[in-house]
Amino acid sequence: MPQKYELRDEPGKTMFVFEKNGKVYGHVVKNKTDKAPAKFVFETAKFDSVQDLKAEYPVIVWQNGSILDYGGTIESHTDHSVTINGAKYLKATCEFNIR
Description:
Elements lengths: L2 E5 L5 E8 L2 E8 L8 E5 L6 H7 L2 E5 L2 E7 L1 E4 L3 E4 L2 E4 L4 E4 L1
Parallel strand pairs: 1-10
Antiparallel strand pairs: 1-2, 2-3, 3-4, 5-6, 5-10, 7-8, 8-9
């Protein structure tokens, strides 16, 4: 299953991250609304690793409307948490957005 992240500077858009033939890339999609279906916007360049893609599109951590971490590379994630810059954040209490 692809990873997905909301874009911080473009509300209503999400990036889905894929890997194919040894390259990693993202699809940016305009989110579905009550009046319109989801719509493909663009595909990122292809990168050699997820780390390279995430370095180009750093993830910002939000909790209760405040920024907890201004951006970095996702080092790992589980069903319950995400590790960025050595810190673990709970998925249940945090939002993760791409700049």
